[in-house]
Each structure stands twice: as structure tokens, then as C-alpha cells.
Amino acid sequence: MSKPKPSKLSPEHIQRKLAQILWRASHRMRHRRHLRKHSASAEAQRYRAGRDTFVLYRIIGNDLPPRHQDGQSRQNIEFILQNEPPLEDCETWWVINRIFDEANRTQLIELLDRHKQRYIEIPFDWDAYRGVKMDTSLFPTPDFLTSDAHAALDADAQERAVLAHNRRKNLYIMNNNGARNTALDHGRNLAKWVLPWDGNCFLTEDGWRKIRQGVIDSNDVPYHLVPMARVDSNSEYLNEETAPNATEEPQIIFHAKSRERFNDAIPYGRRPKVDLMRRLQSKGPWSFRKNDPWDVPAAETCPDAWRFVLSPGWVGRLSSGDVRQEKGRNSAETRMQRRNQAILAAIAMVDAELEARSTVQSET
């Protein structure tokens, strides 16, 4: 029989909450000490130099049902192009990230060209994907998926182990952190501040004004974390009086001279952006989820640890098309389940297409 959870008024619960409050206070004090020390350094002076200009990249990947609706990327791009205000001192780009559906890729490019948008493309190379192998390197034994140890796991853990086996395929198809690093490298020579953001990010006039001013006020700090909001409907972002509850995993702004990058060995679905925030010592609800034994080991710190600030602004996340995944008590769990299903479905789809292409080639 499982042990009952302690009451909210029980001594155990109160003690745990008190420990959390004390830990957060200690973490904030340590962060402030590091920032004061950094602010007095010669490196901080170099960060301050020059006009504060920005380049924003939105990374457009494959639609992944059931995590997304079919055509969701195009719908969100159209919403942004029709409704987002001009962003002061900011140049905007798009990254077309390994779209394997040729019809969808063509429609995306036509849409961007029609609106005279700047973009770069990371192509899907079928020959490169053919060479991608399954990954057993982080399992206790190569036959782990057929072992009694795997059979003893609950259904969710078994699925995560299957995803880990497909990690390299996931990395190639989704190219999550890889695309972020491509945007980061492309932008370092275009502006003082680089925003390698997800493709469904939407900025209001109020949100951008606060983000920009926050960077100007703390332009000696190389990383700015921008809180993200979720809403039931994209139309909510059009009401400037709406006060968003921006408590979701942040997007990151990088100084062009910053040193850190995203770890491109961590695949989509295993908190690839959170890895960098952990290294920077940023803590939030996303920081305390446990890794599986077969996950890529996470680095605990980095040379730029503590050199971040939380932006006073916010960014909105456009809808995936399923309100159950956006808000509500079980939305995070629903998103995780749908995401895992979507990754395996995408891999199966690409593998089937590769097999069909190979059959055609062998017959010619």
C-alpha cells in the first residue's frame, strides 16, 4: 500500500515548505552576490559597449501530431505576420528547420517569400538520415529494451526508454538545440543581442517594450531569461489589457559575445533548453524534474554561471491547436504524453518514407 501524502497542515508539509522558502532565499542572495561581482568586472564593461540592437529568430520545425495540429506552423506564422507590432531595434528572421514533408516545406517558403521575410534553411538530408543509427550507449546493457529490467518499468518509463533508443533519430529530425545554435551563430554578427526562439513565440507591444528596456537596464549581463505565457486562444494576445500569467519555461536572449551554447546532444522532449538554464544556475519549476538513468548526463555548471537576469517583459506562446495541452491542471502531463507520441510517430513516418525512397532507387 502506498504511503499517504501528508496533509497541507501536517508538520511534514510545513517543514518541507519552509525548507523550500529558505532554499529560494539563499539562492537569490547568492545570485545577487555573483551579479554584483560580475558588474564590477572588465568583462561587464565589454558587454555594455555599443548600441543595444536585437535579432530575433523563430525556428520553424515539423508539425508533430498529436502534439500539434496539422498546419499549425503555417497558421501561427500567418498570425504573427498579421498581428505582431514592429519591434523597436530588432531585426527578425525565420529558421526553416529540417522540414521533411516537401509539400509543407514549399508552402512555408512561399508564405515567407510572399511576405518578404528573411529566413535561413537547415535542409533535411535523406542520405544523412540513412546513416543515423539507434542508440544503446546510455543503457546498462545493449539489450536493455528486451530485458526484465525494462519489462519491470511502468508504461511511461518504458516509452521513454524507447525514445532514448531513438535519440539520434530524434536529434536529426527535430534538431531542436542544433537549430538554436545555428540561429545563435548566424545572429552574432548581426546584432548585439540574439534571440534564438521557438517558432510559436508572439510578442505584444507591451511585452517587447519591457523586454528591450530590461536588456538596456542590465546590458552588462550576457543572458536574459524571458518568461513565457500560455493562453487558450491566440486572440487573447490582441487585447493589450490582458495581463498574462507568464510562468512557463523562459526563452533566452544571448549577448553576441556570450560563451554558452545549447547542448545539441540533448533531444527534443528531454528539456533541451532547461539544460542551459541549469548550467546558468537559473531555477524554476522546470529545474527539478528528474532525469532517467539513460538520459544524456547534464552538466551542473558553466563558466557563465549566475550571469543571467529575469526579464521584466514576457513572450506569448501561440496555441498548438489543443486547449487541453495549453492550460489547466493536467496540461503539462498531457503535453508530455502527446510530445512523446508525436516523436515516435514522426520517426516512424520518416523511416517509412526512407524505405519507400530506397525501394524506388533499387528498382531504377
In short, what is this structure?
With 364 residues, this protein is an alpha/beta fold.
Q: How many strand segments?
A: 9
- Helical fraction equals 40-55%
Structurally, the number of domains stands at 1
Number of helices: 12
Percentage beta strand? 5-15%
Estimated structural class: alpha/beta
Q: Roughly how many Å apart are the termini?
A: 63 Å
The value of Rg in angstroms is 22 Å
- The run of helices and strands is HHEHEHEHHHHHEEHEEHEEH
Report the principal-axis shape: globular
The major pleated sheet works out as:
9 strands, mixed
Mean pLDDT: 90
Low-confidence stretches: none
Tell me what the structure shows.
With 364 residues, the chain is of the alpha/beta class. The chain has one domain (51-363). Helices cover 43% and strands 13% of the residues. The protein has 12 helices and 9 strands. Strands 1, 2, 3, 4, 5, 6, 7, 8 and 9 form a 9-stranded mixed sheet that branches. α7 (155-165) packs parallel to α12 (331-363). The radius of gyration is 22 Å and the shape is globular. It starts with 10 loop residues before the first helix and ends with a helix. The mean pLDDT is 90.
Brief descriptors of the model:
9-stranded mixed beta sheet; alpha/beta; 12 helices; 9 strands; 364 residues; 43% helix
